[in-house]
Amino acid sequence: xxxxxxxxxxxxxxxxxxxxxxxxxxxxxxxxxxxxxxxxxxxxxxxxxxxxxxxxxxxxxxxxxxxxxxxxxxxxxxxxxxxxxxxxxxxxxxxxxxxxxxxxxxxxxxxxxxxxxxxxxxxxxxxxxxxxxxxxxxxxxxxxxxxxxxxxxxxxxxxxxxxxxxxxxxxxxxxxxxxxxxxxxxxxxxxxxxxxxxxxxxxxxxxxxxxxxxxxxxxxxxxxxxxxxxxxxxxxxxxxxxxxxxxxxxxxxxxxxxxxxxxxxxxxxxxxxxxxxxxxxxxxxxxxxxxxxxxxxxxxxxxxxxxxxxxxxxxxxxxxxxxxxxxxxxxxxxxxxxxxxxxxxxxxxx
Length: 350
Known about the structure:
This protein is about 20% helix and about 20% strand. It is of the alpha/beta class. It has two domains: about 55-180, Sandwich (Immunoglobulin-like), CATH 2.60.40; about 185-340, HAD superfamily/HAD-like (Rossmann fold, 3-Layer(aba) Sandwich), CATH 3.40.50.1000. The protein is globular and about 55 Å long. Keywords: Signal.
């Protein structure tokens, strides 16, 4: 399904950062390990099988693919005995034109190690034959839905699924974190909370430098990861920025985690952003039974979201945010916060 002609200007930005192929540039140098810390989550950066383009099934697909690829996969938390899906969207160009009724090859890097497993060939959906909604993701065309629980069930750990378009070899990746009993999760916003400003990404889209991270923000998130806590990066950015957001987190040294954006092409702001994030945390609780142990934000909408989700106010940290924090903690320096966030765990998840 294509966006309307009055979609915001972001849709017209020519930007390679919008692509969502391989995991992206090398991560920042690994920091010195903390005594008693859990091992770092795997980077899951093994090169996928080489794509061998064999042409598109439809002439219209060649026209659609003349734009730059904006494919993206949907990361997920899961339980070992619960639903496990790999869902991706394939689209091109500034209007996010769907690639419909075309073949996509699927591969799995189980446990982020060993050899890639071929999962088979899927076909992207179209508006006439939509797939039923799964994991809260409605089918708007150009999507693939792969039920991993049907004969491919994943064990506890981190896994990567790689999709390659048969027509031209372009690709999308996603990550699935299968959580053990007792797992803990920390949720954090991205723009303004981790990045240097609420709108820093806009400058990058128009050819500027990528936004900086707040000093110490990556260190603070690593303190949680070292404590055995899983990271959930939740941003109201549009879906086509999944790839660039994941690459930015990696470059800045943030620990691997699950990344969610909105599923639209325009993103969300203000009240719609709060509603979106509330739905996301509701999904997390419904699928895993987990209420996050920590929350990080910088806007009143984050206060609203974390309060509604039931996160303990004393573990909600708001960067340079005044007003009514509903018992949350104001802070203005992640470097001072990081040491207090590390707690040596009794056991580490696989």
